[in-house]
Amino acid sequence: MTQDLFDPYAPVPETPVKSGNAPEFSVSDLSNALKRTVEDAFSFVRVRGEISGFKRASSGHMYLALKDDKAVIDGVCWRGQAAKLGLVPEDGMEVIVTGRLTTFPGRSKYQIVIETMEVAGEGALLKLLEERKKKLAAEGLFDPDRKKPIPFLPDVIGIVTSPTGAVIRDIMHRLRDRFPRRVLLWPVLVQGQGAAEQVAEAVRGFNDLLPYGQIPRPDVLIVARGGGSLEDLWSFNEEVVARAVAESDIPVISAVGHETDTTLIDFVSDLRAPTPTGAAEKAVPVRVELIGQVEEDGLRLAQAVRRLGVEKKTALESLARGLGDPKRMLEERSQTLDNWADRLPRAAVNVTQQARARLNEASARLVSPREQLSEKRGRLENAALRLDGAMKSALQMQKSRLDRATAGLRPSDAKRDIARADKQIIDLGARLQGAVRNTLTREAEGLARYDRLLESYSYRNVLKRGFAVVRDGDGNLVGKSSDLVTGQTYDLEMGDGITPVTAGEGVATSKPVPGRDDSATIADQNAAISAPEKSAKPKPAKKKNPSPKDDDRQGSLL
Fold first, then answer.
1. 352 contact partners, CB below 8 Å, separation of at least 6
2. Which of 111, 270, 311, 511 is within CB 3.0–4.6 Å of 74 for a Cys-Cys bond?
3. 281 and 155 housed in the same domain
4. Where are any strands of DSSP class E within 166-309?
5. What span, in angstroms and rounded, lies between the C-alpha atoms of 218 and 174?
6. Are 250 and 295 part of one and the same domain?
7. What pLDDT is attached to residue 213?
8. Is 215 exposed, middle or buried (0-12, 13-18, 19+ CB in 10 A)?
9. Rounded to the nearest 5°, which phi and psi values hold at 465?
10. Beta strand 94-104 with 252-256: parallel, antiparallel or unpaired?
11. 31-51 burial code (b ≥16 CB/10 A, e <16)
12. Residues paired with 185 in a beta bridge
């Protein structure tokens, strides 16, 4: 007897009692056993849920999750099966999928392998359609400013529809009735798997044609399909179709379904027709009506030309009546010309006589050049006389001014000024000598202070207090007892001179004395080497502040 795994009222099996004979599974064995159990029990299931986390991998496989308000199940659709799906999955789409359950041992999870997918009801489709409309409207694909005008009489019409069906026949029949045009058909699927992609490819293909190529580029496109349910017309609600139509440089007339059917392509197309037949009517005018209109316009034009000719003729006659007789007007002008011709010789003689009289009058008023030159010479002589007098007056004035200035100079005043200046120079020299002596005295006192300060900072004063400096044969300082080599001679510098000593001969290692400053005791820093005559213990060195600048002659006590 089998138990229904989904029966909520099925009795709960008793918990098995632990037994020492229970089989032991490895992790792989247990995972494989669970995988076989799940795949055998759920080899075919039909699940309804909302898509979330949809992702298409570069390999072509599709991964998603189906969820409701209580649970989530992962799903996968392999590449070969994904190409056969009748729709493009999107997040938020409510669908019904069929497939089989399996487990993924690597992650201890189960998932459904999807074989088919369909939208869960018309309500879900309408919801998805509304979401797509809002999305494309937000991108501006529905703006009226983007609409392109439909040409009045296109030479070539491109049609995107199924080659077998009533739609293409209705369009061709209506075009023949109204105004036969050259038609290019791009056959596509209008329903089912791959229909949306084929329609989008057809629209882009027509746009890629050259205007004057072997296959001419259409002047207008008609995308048409007959009526059907919402599911049947869903290919024309796909984004790929809407975007292809919106990107088209050729004006597009959409004619999908009946007049009550509205698809996404109707919002992005340049003109919507209620039916495919209506699309043909909007694409071309009626030829017979155009011929009648042309004939009527021709008659009206001929009548207008005749009426205009009559009006112009009448106006010309009215103007002609207002003009005089040209022959009479010419005779009058000829008589006037003869009168002027008779008066012209006399007028020329009078003008010549008047000009000669004016010339004689002007000649009488002119002065001869000789007289002009004599007058200019007299003016020049007068100017020279005036200039000579002015120069003499100026020289006399300057001479008087010089005499007055010379009379004001006295030798006694000059001598007094010179004596005063000499006295000032002597006083300034004495003050300068005094200032130099004072400056030298201050500088000498300062130098003596610095010399005493430098002497107080010398390490030799420290040696006089009982400390010593150890140097090797090359004069290098020895800072640590570990640097001493037994049997080697060193120079021991003390306060009263330098004494050579040999390491290891009569030398005792000194120990730190309590209360002594080890940092200042040279015996502790230099391996306790002392001269034989040294008997008194050195006093602790008093700490001093370091000198701003050490004497180059000083060595380190260490």
1. none
2. 111
3. yes
4. 182-187, 220-225, 252-256, 271-272
5. 18
6. no
7. 82
8. exposed
9. -90, 15
10. unpaired
11. beeebeeeeeebeeeebebbb
12. 159
In contact, 51 and 92? CB cutoff 8 Å? yes
Kindly give, in sequence order, each residue whose CB lies less than 8 Å from that of residue 266, ignoring residues fewer than 6 positions away.
254, 256, 272
| Tokens read off for 410 | 């006295």
Beta bridge partner(s), residue 184: 158
Report d(CA 10, CA 8) in Å as an integer.
6
State how many domains the chain has. 4
pTM recorded for the entire structure: 0.44
Same domain, 247 and 303: no
**Long-range contacts from 169-175, C-beta under 8 angstroms, 24+ separation:** 170/275, 170/276, 170/277, 170/280, 171/222, 171/224, 171/276, 171/277, 171/279, 171/280, 174/277, 174/280, 174/281, 175/280, 175/283, 175/284
Instruction: Show the tokens assigned to 264.
Output: 């996404």
What residues form DSSP beta bridges with 400?
Answer: none
Listed residues 103, 119, 135: the one ending a domain: 119
Q: What is the pLDDT of residue 557?
A: 30
Positions in the chain whose pLDDT score sits under 50: 1-10, 12-17, 507-558
Instruction: Let me know: does 129 contact 85? Beta carbons within 8 Å.
Output: no
The answer on 469 and 486 residing in a single domain is: yes
Domain range for 217 is 151-285
Among residues 171, 147, 180, which one has the least CA distance to residue 255?
171
Angle between helices 239-247 and 195-208 (to 10 degrees): 10
Give the orientation angle of helix 121-138 with respect to helix 239-247, to 10 degrees. 30
The pLDDT of residue 512: 39
pLDDT reported for residue 352: 87
